[in-house]
Specification:
The complex is a heterodimer of chains A (371) and B (256).
Chain A lengths: L1 E16 L2 E13 L2 E5 L6 H9 L6 E6 L2 E2 L10 E4 L11 H11 L4 H14 L15 H13 L5 E5 L7 H18 L2 E6 L2 H7 L2 E6 L2 E6 L1 H6 L4 H6 L4 E12 L2 E6 L2 E6 L9 E6 L4 E5 L9 E10 L3 E8 L4 E7 L14 E6 L5 E4 L8
Parallel strand pairs in A: 3-8, 3-9, 6-7, 7-8
Antiparallel strand pairs in A: 1-2, 1-4, 4-5, 9-10, 11-12, 11-14, 12-13, 14-20, 15-19, 16-17, 16-19, 17-18
Helix pairs in contact in A: 2-3, 2-4, 3-4
Chain B lengths: L1 H26 L15 H8 L1 H34 L5 H13 L2 H15 L5 H25 L4 H8 L4 H29 L3 H6 L7 H9 L5 H30 L1
Helix pairs in contact in B: 1-11, 2-11, 3-6, 3-8, 3-10, 4-6, 6-8, 7-8, 8-11
The chains are: A alpha+beta (371), B mainly alpha (256).
Family (chain B): Belongs to the binding-protein-dependent transport system permease family. CysTW subfamily.
Keywords (chain B): Cell inner membrane, Cell membrane, Membrane, Transmembrane, Transmembrane helix, Transport
Protein name (chain B): Spermidine/putrescine transport system permease protein PotC
Amino acid sequence: MNDSVALLQLRGLEKSYAGHSILSGFDLTIFDGEFFTLLGPSGCGKTTILNMIAGMEMPDAGSIVLLGNDISQVPAEKRPINTVFQSYALFPHMTVFDNVAFGLRMQGVEKKQIKPRVLEALEMVQLAHLADRKPAQLSGGQQQRVAIARAVVNQPKVLLLDESLSALDYKLRQQMQLELKRLQRKLGITFIYVTHDQEEALSMSDRILVMHQGKVQQLGTPRQIYENPANLFVARFIGEINQLDGEIVSVDGDHTYDVKVEGLQWTLKAQHNFTAGDKVHVLLRPEDLRVEYIDDFHASQYLVGTVVERNYKGKTLDSLIRLGSGIEVLASEFFNEDDPSFDYRPNQKVALKWVPGWEVVMPAEKSEVAA
Amino acid sequence: MRIFSKLYIALILSLIYLPMFVLVINSFNQSKYGIKWGGFTTSWYTKLFNNDGLIQAALNSLTVSVIAATAATVIGTLAAVALHRYQFKGKALLSSMVFVAMLTPEIVMAIALLIVFISLGITLGFISLVIAHITFCLPFVIVAVYARLKEFDMRMLNAAKDLGASELRIFIEIILPLILPAVISGWLLSFTLSLDDVIVSAFVTGPGYEILPLKVYSMVKVGVSPEVNAISTLLLVVSLTIVIISQLLIRKDKTQ
């Protein structure tokens, strides 16, 4: 990934349907060769952005700049951008070979160059042996690969993927995630992936843009977004999270605060600036929490609660624990059958601890958006 | 119960096909009045092919039907694609008008067309016949092609556009191959509708241009001659062939 080259710039994009604004003043810069993901629930505007980049929809205002050229008025068929559609949208009357060759033929590529290029693209997605089949004779995963080959054979500057894996079953989806990532590295083409699946976004992307109701919630690497969510929406949308309410007691120094949570006082680090008396949320990922026997510790230093439920999940053991204030938190621990501490029973009193610094402290949000 | 249902089916089938069967037999019957079997003959067919007026009317009919069916198919196909693909003002009105045109009593359409031709000063004859036949065939083509278009996931047209295809290339390379069976059956349907139309044709044709159904009709007025049986048998063969062709097309399409 070459950070210094801005490949695609969206500037002040506006779009509304029937007077209802979908996007307004939307800016985004995408770098050459990166795997970029637009992540958000349905209706957040991510597909509209994708359609505008592809040229299927025209922005009401603003510009789309590709390598220094404004392409906002260029029709879709003339843009060096290709799309892998959610429904694959393969041509049912053509063979796999003809499907992949279609883009090259439309561009007027010389006939004798078409065959090697198509076969190379099919080779890349391991489908060269099925070149003579019709799409209806292929499995979902194979059709998906044809759709990818059909797009990348044109050597686009940007490849757009619209929820491209959502029609596949879980196992195949995971396999395709790996394949897509590998393909992207090999080709060096910039991928813009649209999805509502946070797991997909985290595992494939170089950078993720989290959106909600047409607004940018957070832009960052998967790690930044998971470990330091910018707001409650991002925190809840990306994985499971426990939310505790607290209040700043005093400022201890640079981004270090004494915070009162669940009737106890903690020294916590935070990215935000707070003053004493501020209401805050303390967020903890289930996998960062450890459940321990209460008599191993001085109860006053740890959160104390009772076990409500235990769910065996195979690789993890999930415990739902009710704290003194009535809030229920989820702790997810890797299963270790030799560890006696896994023998908790419902209604047992336990202590909850976590590695200091793994918590996220953010200002309390009054009007909370449901994730 | 099984016997009863079989009898029932036999009754219905004989109601439909017995008259036709009698007609076909009679076209080979030496006895002129067709009341009793007078021996096998093909003389009525020979007589038929020697009847210049009848042959001319048949050729006229074929000319009108081929031109009208072809024109209706081209216009109807484009109209169906436009109705399916593009958003424009009056689209809903236009698509419901298609059905209105289909359900309009033929006599109403015949009078309406006659008024149009007279007020535009179009001489009644070949031209007026062709225009009239295109008009009543058009809705059938539109409906057939439109139904076919609705079967496909037309997001593939966006994919074609995305891959650099112009509207014309999309039509030629994607839409046309997919709807071809419907286009062909639309043509065949138009051809048969046009070939045996009596009511509209009777109103809009002129004395100088005689077509087969009208000629047959005028012949029958003086009694059903064995020649009429012969020409009807030939027409039956033509329409059966067309039905078989369109059924084969549909079946081939389904197995694909």
